[in-house]
Amino acid sequence: MTLISSSRPRTDRPRPTRPGTGRALTHALVVALALAIAVPVAWVLLASLKQKSEFFGSPWTLPEGLHLENYIDAFVDAHMGQYFLTSVLVTALGLVLVLAVSVPAAYVIARYEFRGRGLVELALLGGLFVNVNYIVVPIFLMLVDWDRALVDVFPGGFFIDNPAILSLVYAATSIPFTIYLLTAYFRSIPVEYEEAAALDGASRLRIMTTIMLPMARPAVTTVILFDFLAYWNDFIISLTLLPGDNKTLQVGLLNLFTAQKGAADYGRLYAGMVIVIVPVLLVYALIQRRLIEGMASGGVKG
C-alpha cells in the first residue's frame, strides 16, 4: 500500500520587511545629515565668539566668554556692514526685477496662443543650460563698451561698479529658470478658475494677480528661494562687475579672509562668516515654512 502524503510542498518566500526598520533607517539618515550640517555651523558660531589667544589651544573648546567685539570689528573696521547692505540691496532689487518680468511672461506663455510661442519656449529651455560664470567676461566687456559710449554723459561710468546694474544682470540671467518653473505650474492649474472669474467680469490682469498668482504661491516661493540663494552666494559676477568699493558680502568676506589670515585674528574672520550664513538660514527657514503651507492649501477642491 502506497501512502500519499497530504502535506503540501514548502515554498520559500521572502520575509516582509518590518515597517519600523525602514523608518528607523530613514530617521537615522536624516539625523546624520542634520548633524553634518549643524555641527560646522555651530562650530563657526562658537569660534566667532573666541578671543585671539583661544585659537592656539584645542579647536573644540568652548569660548571663555561672549567676545562680541569680533562682530563689531567685522562690521565697522572690515566694512562688512557696508558690504551687507550692498548685498541686501542687490538681492532684493534682483528678486523684484525677475518676478516683475517672469510672472506675467510665464502666465502669457502658459495660457495664450500666439505666433512663435514654441520658439520662445525653446529659447528659454536653451537658457537653462547656459552657465552664467562662463559668460561673465563678455558681459563685462559689453558694459565697458557702453560706458565708453556714454563717457560724455557719465564721465565716471555708469554700468560698471553699479549695484543696480548687477541686480539687472542677476535678474536677466535667472529669467529662463524662473519662467520655466512658473509656466509649468500655471499650466497645472485648471482653467475653470479663470473661466469662473471671467464670467464675473474680471479682466486678464485681475485674474492673474488675484487668482492665478495666489494659487501659484508654492512655485513663486520656490523661485524666490532659489534666486535668493543664487544672488546672495554669487562671487564671480559681483567680483567682476563691482571692482570698486561697492562690494558684496561674498567679495568682502574674501578680503577679510586675506587680511585676517596674515594677522591671525580668526575671531573676526569667523564673525564675518556668521554674518554671511545667518541671513541665508533665516530666509530659508521662512521660505520653507511658507512653501509647505502653500502646497497644503493649493489644489482643486471638489
Structural descriptors:
302 residues, mainly alpha, MetI-like fold, 2 domains, 12 helices, 0% strand, globular, disordered N terminus, disordered C terminus, transport, membrane, cell membrane, transmembrane helix
**Count of DSSP-assigned helices:** 12
Which CATH architecture of the largest domain is right? Orthogonal Bundle
Succession of helices and strands: HHHHHHHHHHHH
Q: Indicate the overall shape.
A: globular
Mind telling me the C-alpha Rg? Answer: 27 Å
Portion of residues within helices: 55-70%
Strand content: under 5%
Written description of the protein model:
By secondary structure, this protein is mainly α. The protein has 2 domains: 42 residues, no CATH class; 227 residues, MetI-like fold (Orthogonal Bundle). The chain is 70% helix and 0% strand. The protein is built from 12 helices and no strands. Helix 3 packs parallel to helix 6, helix 3 packs antiparallel against helix 9 and helix 9 packs antiparallel against helix 12. It is globular, with a radius of gyration of 27 Å. The N terminus and C terminus are likely disordered. Pfam families: BPD_transp_1. This is Sugar ABC transporter permease. It comes from Streptomyces aurantiogriseus. Belongs to the binding-protein-dependent transport system permease family. Its main location: membrane.
